[in-house]
Amino acid sequence: MVNKISVINRSGRTVKVGFFRNHGPLRPSFRAEKIIFVRRNRCRSVTLDYGWEGRVQKLNGASNDPATWSEIHFNAWNNMTFADISLIRGYNGSMVFFTNDGSLHTGIKDNLFRGAPDRCKRRNSRGIHVLDATEPYSGGQNHDLIAYYRSRVPKGDGYIVPNDHPSSHGTKNTHINLKIY
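User: That's the sequence. What structure does it adopt?
Assistant: Structure tokens below.
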């Protein structure tokens, strides 16, 4: 059984994508295990190890800048693959996980930057506009941003705060697609 993610770029430019394997439960890595470049309207596939758990992140700044995290755990409980899109650590573009057999579909296609409260917008380390974290590393919560996301993100399509568990979806499929917008 091969674990594979196919990254499909639907944005208007080439994207740099990092694959970050977790160090353990609740211990994300900030050093990419693999980095790929995907030209616009193209697809690139990456094979990952049995039991791989971590995130796929569009890198338009530093790995610890505010960014959308597409989190995935292959060969987890009952050998299932679990995936979710998380806005907890920020937003630097919309993403959707899906499988060709229809057993998994989660994420956001809409541009969430447009219409977001100005006080939630910032620039990352490369000067690119992003939305801040709903729960910064320094602690606390960004209640204005949480309220905004609640008005735009359907329940179950993205983690806004850590207890949004309906946003984690499972499938027996080990070939997962990720569209980046």
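The chain is about 5% helix and 35% strand.
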